[in-house]
# Entry
Amino acid sequence: MATAMFTDCSTSTTAAAARFLPLNRDAVVLHSRRSVPLRFGPINSSLLRTTVTKCHASASPSVLPAAMAAETSAKIIDGKSIAKQIRDEISAEISRMKDNIGVVPGLAVILVGDRKDSATYVRNKKKACESVGINSYEVHLPEDSTEQEVLKHISGFNDDPSVHGILVQLPLPSHMNEQNILNSVCIEKDVDGFHPLNIGRLAMCGREPLFVPCTPKGCIELLHRYGVPIEGKRAVVIGRSNIVGTPAALLLQREDATVSVVHSRTKNPEVITRQADIIISAVGQPNMVRGSWIKPGAVVIDVGINPVEDAKSARGYRLVGDVCHEEACKTASAVTPVPGGVGPMTIAMLLSNTLTSAKRMHNFK
Amino acid sequence: MATAMFTDCSTSTTAAAARFLPLNRDAVVLHSRRSVPLRFGPINSSLLRTTVTKCHASASPSVLPAAMAAETSAKIIDGKSIAKQIRDEISAEISRMKDNIGVVPGLAVILVGDRKDSATYVRNKKKACESVGINSYEVHLPEDSTEQEVLKHISGFNDDPSVHGILVQLPLPSHMNEQNILNSVCIEKDVDGFHPLNIGRLAMCGREPLFVPCTPKGCIELLHRYGVPIEGKRAVVIGRSNIVGTPAALLLQREDATVSVVHSRTKNPEVITRQADIIISAVGQPNMVRGSWIKPGAVVIDVGINPVEDAKSARGYRLVGDVCHEEACKTASAVTPVPGGVGPMTIAMLLSNTLTSAKRMHNFK
# Structure
């Protein structure tokens, strides 16, 4: 029947896509550098740090577009600067709302346990809120809290009129039912936009989602701010996660692109990708998308943020995207860097969604 | 921003897709026989009966695949026979449920006004219900009923434990708010499966929709019953309506096809379509998909049911699909006829959804 289900994909949700990408089913393990078709499988986190650490220009030279030889240089899409601009706009809008109706948007974050990475994400979100004038509320519960305690706090935030957005920082401790907890956030405050009702509305023409998920919203925003036309263009989204790939494809289709979704079961992904005017890659596989995958002049949005070993770095690793940046720069007309591309946009869109929520609740135009 | 909306698409919903196809935004008006790219626009119902009434083999001969010359003959996918088989299976399952727990599934249909076509659809659904042992309940309200009266009846069916599925026959009289009325059907009885929550669950990995919309479910069921492999195949869905195209694309992706959606803003739709191993066309445009659009050996599911003038027919018209059947037969490996392909599957899937609903409500395995 038509209801066969995925069994190997993560249902995790979060506003910070980066840390989830390595968990999604579309992660790719590269074998012997460049086997085509690629063998796909569940990601092994140790591989993330030991496989491809730089692009190898020797890959499939026979299929490299002729234009690559010309060493053209793509425009770098500066996500950091655009995100700053958006945050300034949000900040101004928040001042206007405060002056007019005395309301300040509020974002509540619930953190359970002592994971350092989670603590860092929460700290960054709080700082971002402060920088634009959003009140942030944090509940930090110990690792051994009960599900009931988490639900109690969510319920409190659901009822609190000063809170316009609620985030539950993932992952939750393993003794908790993540789906139960996420479902308890009322849809009007679900600023992550991952509720199936929102995704359904995103998929349907004539319907409006309450919130658009932050990372894909950030991708489209980058295209808009750089004046990249979308209507009538071929777009390929690599990856079909609930938090990036699927909503990104739906958003592109809403903007009248002709969209193809490439995923772990796709044969010859490079052939399909090479047809695209716009590529959004969100698989969490370092340097998977090579220059030979990119049509000359295409625009490339690289959502991957993958740590790879780097002895020269003080941290012992550096971050790279899904796309081999140096090769993409020679073929694409524009490309996002990693870091500094989509990453800063995700938090900017979270702030934007929180502002949208507050404006909607108070009917402020 | 990423929230630009369609303004020209129908939000109508129904289990019988055929009559809605001419209303959807992806309907195509053919100009001067074969202009490429095609000009798309809102459908004009008079054109439906006066434009292409037969396939013209002269179309783009230069791009016809060589294999077409071989006059191969596609397998005809017999929807009528498969639908009969499914109805027999449903009938047996209903007997088993009745024998075991004494429950008979019930489908309620609400019809407002005196449209002859609507009356015919309702009568056909009732007959289909009877043929498999589903109780059908009908409320027929006069054209000048109030919205409140319709809502009262829906509310009654929502609360009635003998009713497991509720259909509101569309279109409703213009003085009623269709969305209000459809939204009042409780999601557990929304056997059409068009609720955004269902569509969202369909789009998301790890989530299960309560109901899969009948027509796209019927398309996938045909592929399954004919043993057509889907995983890893290229699929093109032509049309992105809420009731067929979009859910069909989501279903194919759930089955691990690599899916591209072709629509009214797509440039060179025939080039993209020709890459597909599986084509599902649902645009409501007679004979739009020509032989030259079809890769030799592809499987073609034709959802369109379009009336075209036919002086030889007693009715003055005959029904044709979106696909030029005679050309498709020479190129495809298998193709659905119109009528007798997807059409009979839609009602079979409605019966299947009603049975599913009754089994779920009574926890009958």
